[in-house]
Fold this protein.
Amino acid sequence: MTEQPILEVKHLQHIYMKGTPLEHHALAGVSLKINKGECIAVIGHTGSGKSTLIQHVNGLMRPQAGDVVVDGMDLADPKIDIRLLRRKVGLVFQNPEDQIFEKIIGDDIAYGPFKMGLPIKEVRDRVKWAMELVGLSFEEMKDRATYALSGGQKRKVALAGVLALRPDILVLDEPTAGLDPRSRNELLERLKTLNKKENMTIIFVSHNMEEVAYMADRIYVLADGRNLVDGTPEEVFVEAEKLREHYIGTPDTVEILAQLKAKGFAVRQNAYQLEEAANEIIALL
Amino acid sequence: MALPLIQVKNLSFEYAVNQTKIPVLHDISFEVKPGEYVVIIGHNGSGKSTLSKHLNGILTPVSGDVVVNGWNTKEWSSMREIRQKVGMVFQHPDNQIVATIVEDDVAFGLENLEIPPSEMKERIDFALASVGMNEFRNRPPHYLSGGQKQRVAIAGVLAMKPDCLVLDEATSMLDTHGRNEILKVVRKLNDEGMAIISVTHHMSEAAQASRVIVIEKGRIIMDGTPREIFQQEEELKRLHLDIPVASQMARKVQSHHHDFNGTLIHNDEIVKEVVRLSQREVPVI
């Protein structure tokens, strides 16, 4: 079956401050092909072009060269319905707490669905659904003030605001930075459910390799604005050397196995799940 | 026995929001000795950032005392000395960097202390060398990576020659590489005798400390070496926390292989343990 990818990026280039002495190639020919319902991680060192790339997905940036096609919409075409695109693609920024502006939590989350012109009952249902999804109790939290929240809670509110739009593609830039381990695990769990049960396509940028190993069906690794490697976590983490050269770490599990391998032990270096990695060691003893 | 550098005595604190008081810290007492490396962990909203802001008088107790090197933080007259003894680095380096050239930024605090120019140069050289940023001294900070900016922020604090460095989630916005850069600097400073107090969500970072304090609902509920703390996996999970990947692996392997040491907390310890056990494999008769 030849399925139409929900997002296709071909040879995308972007130059900041083009034509000035400060000209900088943020993207120098990146390609991605993502099918509906996939969970994709984009990783790379600071400055590798990850953030520039994901800002293209909902049309915040338009391709200077190359193609970006989202569910049949060609972003190079200036006449596309940008509102429709933004409804399809929900983008959560790196410091989502900055995107909170209402005084009351419930109002902030309702803003998007309300602007979509949904009936009030539907808006309420969506707010409730989104809040429960990120782990905020609707009854308890909807009338609380947004400014008296901790950093982690603000993050959840901002994420709920985007989820309430029920996008087809959810794009997240560092979704768990600054969350405590349990909030992080719960959020990842919920995103995974959303991905598997509701078939929402998820694209996320992360520095946390444990998180990438847990979540991603496939990984795209960027370096200097180009594709470095891509594939399943097994395929990518086996390239530990190459990743390290570009200042990208691997999960601790892979790290430990790599050290063992360097000492001459016969281990599979890409057994990145904790259970598997522990089994590799048990098999040695 | 060394005198404590920081004494926290029955500290309680509450935030006042619209006449209502929100209690955050309850009757907290602990001491930090010169040269100690203390990590504070706790889930989002547990009060750990509020606690860290008490350590150099950014916040002062509602009841109880914080005494730095003999000065009570409630005494305004000694605030200058306290801030000089205990330097603070926050989550976002952008909030802490004020000048347009790295060198000037590091000099900022010194100018306020009216340090003579010759000594100022000496201190800036020392501070930038300590964090490995000497070659960037004439660069504008906004062109640096997150990890580099955070190192500049640390240099600004080091130039004041503090006895204690407080890091409030200083690595949580950084990638693995950036985080390792900071941890290396912090470890070096600690080796040279500076006391470190670090608030973090990264359990592998906590494993490096000499002591871990766990905060829950504004109270200290555990205080011990990382090895002691990370044996209590169930309790930590209940508190929304976690144990390092290395500990998880050690425990998994131990459950199959009783000789394997289950109290390991670092990646390289796991490797050493495997080497130790495999060398012993010669049948003993």
